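User: Sequence recovery, please. Input:
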């Protein structure tokens, strides 16, 4: 086990190699390891990576999605596509498998600066940019769309969309207090 003996029973966490890769872009091996260990053991987001309280987070995102992008939210519900399908993939990898390296790096930096709330805002911003495609897709095509890569997105447009997606920190803190 990577963190033995601190976390006996904790095996591989999907997406951690991509998180370590992001750290390694800016740090040496030792600092990258320590940063990953901190993220998993001392940061509220570590509980998500370990699979704890994920449903609470998905429910929170569903609520925020319905508030911010009601047409997208309703269409996804009609198709039976819930946040569990795409959000976990996006969050566990900090969007490194979905966005260009430049965009994913900015997402990661903003996550480290603002916390978990930025991942929700990023998800909303991405769905906002995809809204026309989502609303014109059937279930299979929509699932493929949400799990695909978005390297073609203009970084300025993406981060402008993210910036327009405000989420109450008070609401977010209510979710995190149970984590």
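Assistant: Recovered sequence (179 residues):
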């Amino acid at each position: 086990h990577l963190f033995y003996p601190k976390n006996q029973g904790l095996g591989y966490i999907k997406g951690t190699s991509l998180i370590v890769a992001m750290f390694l872009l800016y740090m040496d091996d030792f600092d990258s390891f320590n940063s990953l260990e901190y993220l998993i053991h001392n940061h509220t987001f570590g509980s998500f990576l370990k699979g704890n309280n994920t449903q609470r987070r998905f429910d929170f995102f569903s609520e925020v999605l319905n508030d911010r992008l009601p047409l997208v939210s309703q269409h996804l519900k009609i198709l039976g596509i819930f946040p569990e399908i795409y959000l976990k993939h996006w969050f566990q990898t900090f969007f490194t498998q979905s966005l260009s390296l430049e965009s994913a790096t900015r997402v990661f930096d903003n996550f480290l600066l603002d916390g978990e709330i930025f991942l929700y805002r990023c998800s909303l911003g991405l769905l906002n940019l995809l809204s026309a495609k989502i609303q014109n897709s059937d279930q299979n095509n929509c699932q493929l769309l949400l799990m695909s890569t978005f390297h073609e997105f203009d970084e300025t447009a993406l981060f402008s969309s993210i910036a327009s997606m405000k989420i109450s920190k008070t609401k977010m803190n209510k979710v995190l207090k149970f984590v």
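The radius of gyration is 16 Å.
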